[in-house]
Amino acid sequence: MIHLDILQVPDCPNVPLLEQRIEQALADTPMEWELRHLVIEDPQSAETVGMTGSPTLLIDGRDPFAEPDQAPSVSCRLYRDDAGAIGGAPTVSALRKAFGMDSPTPDERAEVDSIDRIVDCCSADPAPVADLGASRGRATPTGPAETAVHQAILRTFAEDGASPTIEDLEPIAQQFDSSATAILQRLHDADVIRTNTSGQVQSAYPFSASPTAHRVHLPSGIEVYAMCAIDALGISSMLGVDTTITTSDAGDQTLIAVTVRGIHSHAQPTTTVVYVGAEAAQGPSADICCSHLNFFNDRDAAEAWAEAHPNVSGIVLGLDEATELGAAIFGPLLN
């Protein structure tokens, strides 16, 4: 008998997804198992039971997905699969490995876990945080040529405060017997970057070549624009430097300043929160998510904005949770 415990905060939106994947992983097996839920409401209880974010799965009392230096937490927990995609629960193949079973064949894994690359960022799903993490996590280069060009784009933004031209990227593309135009098109099609009608780079998450509400100051003196609030918060972890964000409340436009050091951040006002939302539609993150991922002075302001925009579904995150989400999405991009 396998004893499974799901450690969760009240009404965690990712628990149904985890339950579904557990059932899929254990389907058609002779294993006997039982599942319990333990609802945790404060950091002290999370530390006592070993919950490092919601949901945490214990198999016979052990967390098979524990990571080094992962602290007890009641915030949203994100899981990264073998391909680097981020989601709100382990994949079916990861669960099968944790249960000591043979992993699915590649065809089976694709059938179970695949999702369109141009995705529903936060469609009608009740878990916008997991959807954002999954969509941005999946939007990663698929080969060495794409990875090299993508990282060159990110580094150019960080070093120059602007996007590289097609000509700037041509020498890198030629190393892979390709052209910059062809590689940029593949990155655009995969929603890793967005290009304009001339094929030039318009944005590369987390950076925008055009001014946005979120201006990020780097120690070098360079200033860059971020696509959205989560992107702005993730730049520190991606570049390994401290950053300062100048932004504003998306409702009343009052100034907000945020300092970020990796997964830690402080804001003025101290009550600052982030609203993570999107319209119920399919398409690139830049089109359906970015304008709805914003800073607010406090939770009341964010909830008032959400009430005034019923076409946008989402959730209010504390600054710590939002910073951790940004770090999880963007931290690995230059590794």
Automatic annotation (TrEMBL):
Gene Ontology MF, one: alkylmercury lyase activity
- Record-linked Gene3D superfamilies: 3.30.450.410
Q: Which SUPFAM superfamilies match?
A: NosL/MerB-like
Keyword Lyase applies:
yes
Record keyword Ribonucleoprotein present: no
**Which key words tag this protein in UniProt?**
Lyase
Give a single Pfam family match: MerB
Its protein name is: Alkylmercury lyase family protein
Q: Which organism is it from?
A: Rhodococcus qingshengii
